[in-house]
Design brief:
It is a single chain. By secondary structure, this protein is α+β, with helices and mostly antiparallel strands. Helix content is about 40%, strand content about 20%. The protein contains ten helices and eleven strands. About 5% of the residues have low confidence.
Length: about 300
């Protein structure tokens, strides 16, 4: 299979409408329809169930959609990595969400700089859960990302697991308590992920999120490190006794054989271990998940 018919197929599969897919691709519907029928002939399967009023994926089409996305991302990533490799001064791109590094980003970069395989690092700040896409599309070499996330095509190393805290307006009646439960916030454990996503969607960044809390918005559930790093007048942070921790990992493409990326992963694991040891001594509530990694990078 070639890349072009796969791109055509993905467009139709995502739009479920040949006219909209053709407009998205910048072509007319007839050649798009012919390309899809030729792809079906080559594969010997039916990818779409078509009627005069609807288009739907068949089971074969559903499987191909998932695989085609991975294949197209891999092609795009190969080109981008080749372009970066040809640059006069090689560098690594580390993707991270602003304020989502548990305070480890600067120590990781400092530790990595002392490694023999170190190269300059460009930190790409991104939105929530954008990191896996950036890795798969070759726009980043490694990423600091909170779990859960789509691990397709990625290897990971767990770094830290932090307790959650609720950010409250100081005038909130719950602010008088030392600790809170999910029930105090009117939440059931099964609703936790949906609630976190809904609250996060109300703002673009942490500053906006905390401003909304002060104005009476819903309390966000945040990593404990945020409370230590971002005190704000009119806000209080209260530990949640029954919420699962916020887990931070470092991730990188499975196919990576970059010694520099491997050195960055080692630096991150070392810094996380140091944070665990300090937390154990100071009882700050930061728990590190050991060195239970999920892959290897650049060591063959």
């Amino acid at each position: 299979m070639e890349a072009r018919p796969l791109r055509y197929f993905v467009a139709v599969a995502e739009e479920l409408n040949f006219a909209r897919a053709a407009e998205r691709l910048g072509i007319s519907p007839p050649p798009l329809s012919r390309a899809i029928r030729q792809l079906e002939t080559e594969l010997g399967v039916t990818l779409f169930e078509r009627t005069t009023h609807s288009v739907a994926l068949t089971p074969a089409g559903t499987v191909l959609l998932a695989e085609a996305r991975i294949a197209l991302d891999a092609l795009q990533a190969a080109g981008r990595r080749a372009q970066r490799a040809a640059a006069p001064e090689p560098k690594l791109v580390l993707a991270a969400k602003a304020d989502g590094d548990a305070g480890l980003l600067e120590p990781i970069l400092a530790r990595f700089a002392s490694e023999p395989s170190a190269v300059p690092v460009a930190v790409r700040l991104c939105g929530w859960q954008e990191q896996p896409r950036l890795l798969r599309q070759g726009e980043a070499d490694a990423a600091l990302v909170h779990e859960p996330f789509d691990r397709t095509g990625l290897d990971t190393e767990t770094l830290v697991a932090e307790p959650r805290v609720a950010a409250l307006a100081a005038t909130d009646p719950l602010a008088t308590r030392d600790h809170l439960s999910l029930a105090d916030l009117g939440l059931h454990p099964g609703d936790l992920h949906r609630y976190i996503e809904e609250v996060r969607s109300d703002s673009r960044d942490l500053a906006q999120l905390l401003t909304l809390v002060g104005l009476g918005g819903r309390p966000p559930l945040l990593p404990a490190s945020v409370a230590a790093r971002y005190p704000r007048p009119g806000l209080v942070y209260r530990p949640l006794t029954d919420a699962p921790p916020v887990v931070l990992a470092i991730a990188w493409p499975q196919q990576s054989r970059s010694k520099a990326t491997a050195a960055l992963v080692r630096a991150a694991a070392s810094v996380a271990e140091g944070a665990r040891n300090r937390a154990a001594g100071l009882d700050q509530g930061l728990v590190v998940e050991g060195a239970a990694g999920h892959g290897s990078c650049g060591d063959d």
